[in-house]
Structure formats: structure tokens, C-alpha cells
Amino acid sequence: MIHISELAFNYASKPVYADFSLKLTQPGVVGLFGRNGSGKSTLLKILSGLLFPDHGKVEVLHYEPKRRLPAFLEQVYFVPEEFHLPDIKIAALQKHHAPFYPKFSHPDFVRYSEIFEIPQDKGFATMSLGQKKKAVIAFALATHTPLLLMDEPTNGLDIMGRAQFKQIMSGPEHADRLVLISTHQAHDLENLMNHVLFVDGGKIALSASMPQLQSALHLGITDDFSQTEGCIYHEALGNQWAYVAANHHNHAGKINLELLYKALSINKQGVLDAMSKNQPPVEKSA
Ligand SMILES: Nc1ncnc2c1ncn2[C@@H]1O[C@H](COP(=O)(O)OP(=O)(O)OP(=O)(O)O)[C@@H](O)[C@H]1O
Fold first, then answer.
1. What's the 38 CA to ligand 1 centre distance in angstroms?
2. Nearest atom, ligand 1, residue 184 CA
3. Is 34 near ligand 1, meaning CB less than 6 Å away?
4. What is the pTM for the complete model shown?
5. What percent of the chain has pLDDT over 90?
6. pLDDT tens across 95-147, in order?
7. For residues 105 and 110, what is the distance between their CA atoms, to the nearest angstrom?
8. What are the residue ranges of CATH 3.40.50.300 in the chain?
9. Where are the alpha helices (DSSP H) in the chain?
10. 11 C-alpha to ligand 1 centroid (Å)
């Protein structure tokens, strides 16, 4: 579905990607993680055809995004982190924009709008930031495009909004699409994710499915500091210690993505060594 090889991209003189490669071949929810400024939004814009690579090959759903062919654009929806909406009501949003997306589902849009409690009688100019974001997400999910790109979708949503987002995203109607989500709110979405990507230094630091992570890593909490010896990463948690270690027991445990993110930021090589030593015989990419 996504095939990038040897991508290079610079903003004027600011290099963001150099020799970046990535392959995602299966539908599912993929989390895109990385430090501030690591290039996540830039990648989503390149994939949606809003920015053009300087070098390398980018293929999405068998199209080159930079050509912006209508047959490509009707299959991809991008929810940016920041957006401007005209002062219209959500019924008008649907009327004017839905015809661009052949698989758009009116009943699903109504259902998602109800779950999100989006006001029907207000124009966007008088909606709150969270209400506008919910309207855009409800629309994006109702397009049923095979590829959905979302940049920080839960930013600006309250606790109920985040729960509503998870509820909608878990629906079986999204099972066949690839949903690539850039987020710093790892905890919000970790139960939904099938695969995670970490970008660092203009390259993919890690691309792994959840089963691969669960098989290779053991994340836990202990009262006994001596148990953190030899771990890939540990941190104080009140009177206890949270840690990331290589999984020597072959029990598939729960992956706390925030802890994994810190482990990768502080000791990337430790994580990669554990991953390379313990790979289950499962899919190699999402
Ligand atoms: N329009 C632009 N012109 C010049 N430089 C830019 C532009 N947009 C982004 N950058 C720079 O490119 C790099 C990557 O930015 P990008 O927004 O893709 O990062 P990000 O990973 O999405 O960051 P964040 O987590 O903070 O949202 C950053 O160093 C940023 O300063």
C-alpha cells in the first residue's frame, strides 16, 4: 500500500529525510512516532501529495502522490494537525465534500457525528476547536478511503472525545483500510495499533508489528531496583521502577508505547538488538 525507497526531502536548506525507506503492505492501524521536528507531519504530507520528494521513489496505492491524479486523491484522506474550515454546518460539509469520495457512507457520518456529539445547528466559526476536530475526523472516517492519514488526531479532544475516537476507530468497517496516525498521545491509541513506526534522524529507527514487539520485549514495573540491572531502559515511578528489557521468556506481554518511546530515545541500539535477536515468524510489515 505504501512503498518508499531512498526518499530525500529538504525544506530549503533544512534536510528532513535522506535515504528513507519504508514498506507497509497490510491494512491496519499504524502509529507513527518520533521526537518533535523529526519529520512526521512532513512524511504524511509527502504521502498525500502535498509535498514533493527531492529524490527517491514514493508509491502509495500504486500511484505517485506528487502527480495528484483524481483516481489517487479519491482514495486518500489526510487530517492535518491544523486546518481552516469555512463557516458552514456539518450537513453542508458532507454535501459539498462527500461527492469526491466514492465510498463515503452517509449513515456512518451521521453515526460518528452522534457519537462525537457534534452540534448540527452551528457553523464551524462558532464551534470549539475540539468540536471542529471531531467533525473533520467523523468526515475522514466516513470517507472509507483505503488510506487514511491523521496528524495528531486526538490533540484538542477531551477525555470523552478520546474515548469516542477509540470507540469509532475500533469499528469493523475500518478493518480493510490502512490508517497511519502520527501522535504523541501513544497511550490513547496503543490498544488499536497493529504496527508502530519510529522516525529518528531522517530514517526509520524501528518498524515493527505489535506481535514482534511483544515477542522481543518485556515491559514491566518492579519494587526491586536490582531487577532493572541489564535492562534496555528504566525509570523511577514513585517508589517503583518501570523498565524495558529483552524478553527472554517468550511470554507475549503488554507494550506500553510511551515507555518504549523513551527507551528508543535513550537507548535505540538496545531496543534494536533485542528486536533482532527475537523475531516471531509473523508478518514483516503492516
Ligand atoms: N514549512 C517549513 N519550512 C521549513 N522548515 C520546516 C517547515 N515545516 C517543517 N519544517 C522543519 O522540518 C522539520 C520536520 O518538521 P515536521 O513538522 O515534519 O516534524 P514533526 O515530527 O511532525 O514535529 P512535531 O512532533 O513537533 O509535530 C522540523 O525541523 C521543522 O522545523
1. 7
2. 25
3. yes
4. 0.91
5. 65
6. 999 999 999 999 999 999 999 999 999 999 999 999 999 999 999 999 999 99
7. 9
8. 27-52+64-201
9. 40-47, 70-73, 90-97, 106-115, 129-143, 159-169, 186-189, 210-216, 257-266, 268-277
10. 9
Query: In this structure, how many other beta carbons lie within 10 angstroms of the beta carbon of residue 166?
Result: 14
Span 223-235, pLDDT tens digits: 988 888 889 999 9
Q: What is 27-52+64-201's CATH topology?
A: Rossmann fold (3.40.50)
Q: How far is the CA of 14 from the centre of ligand 1 (A)?
A: 9
Alpha carbon dihedral 41, 46, 50, 53, in 10-degree steps, equals 130
**Whether 259 contacts 217, CB under 8 Å:** no
Q: Is 35 exposed, middle or buried (0-12, 13-18, 19+ CB in 10 A)?
A: middle
Read off the pLDDT band of 286 (50, 70, 90): very low
Alpha-carbon gap, residue 224 to 95, rounded angstroms: 60
